[in-house]
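Troubleshooting log. The previous structure file for this entry was overwritten by mistake, so regenerating from the original sequence record. Sequence copied from the archived sheet and checked twice against the printout by T.R.
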Amino acid sequence: MKTHRPLSRLTALTLALLCALPAAAATAPKKVLMVTVTAGFRHSCIPLSEEIVTQLAKESGKFTVDFVRQPADLPKPPARPRQAKGEDAAAKAAMEKYAADEKVYQAALMPKLAQALQKLSPANLKNYDAVIFASTTGDLPLPDKQGFVDWIASGKGFIGVHAAADTFEKTARFAGFPPYITMLGGAFMTHGPQVSVDCNNEDPAHAACKHLPKTWTLFDEIYEFKEFERSKVHGLLSLDKHPQNKAPGYHGIAWNKMHGKGRVFYTALGHREDVWDPNYKDNNGARKNPPEIAKQFQQHVLGGILWALGLAPGDAKPKK
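Regenerated output below.
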């Protein structure tokens, strides 16, 4: 009769490690890449948004966050002159000079942005589960724009905050990229003065809205959209009247949707620092939004991130 020698200590340890691998993989934090690069207008809240998302990642323990930030050694953009009116020759000449200076500026800017955005190459994106665009603007020189949109469609997550809708939008200044707008669900059109609005919570069961009241009142810069179709997104927050003139009508504020197998979450809020941070005060020591609003907004963003990562519940079916 054969006898079996006991496993060596090394073999037993190897087996134990192999058995533990599935459990470790299941609990490993997801990896998120946060992009705050801008080719157009740059929001003052961006550094604060980076701090808050870092804090949310650490406190939740569900994901880690890496960054693609604006390069430090960028050329200075030209100052836009006043708009020419009628036959104002001087103003018209100033605008023509500005247009020429803007072309020179963009030619110097784009190579530097392109270098920073190499982290969004198809090869490097394989290391991440989701990407956040936080108030990005303009035609970002991604290594492969279509490849990026296709990466999301393959089953990854995308989280857009505020001016993410002012990215790849076609304007007189920027060429745009329609597949990005289709993925996102809408493009920035305009905004009026910052204003207090009553947001309707359309889906209290969704992770991005479950902590919000039925009507959530806050003060912020409110976007109006083009290329937005209510029937193609799952509404999360909305207005039932125009933010400025108060005319009745539907205005999307936050939504989510599927893009292929990918999960897309977008919130138009987040222009103001006191929407992000409960401790922020302006130069006069004041704030428009009480601290509770910022705490709720942080949970709104966190819920959207976790949903996009497949770690939190939420419907994505368009509402008819």
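Confidence is low (pLDDT under 50) at residues 1-10. Archived copy saved in two places this time.
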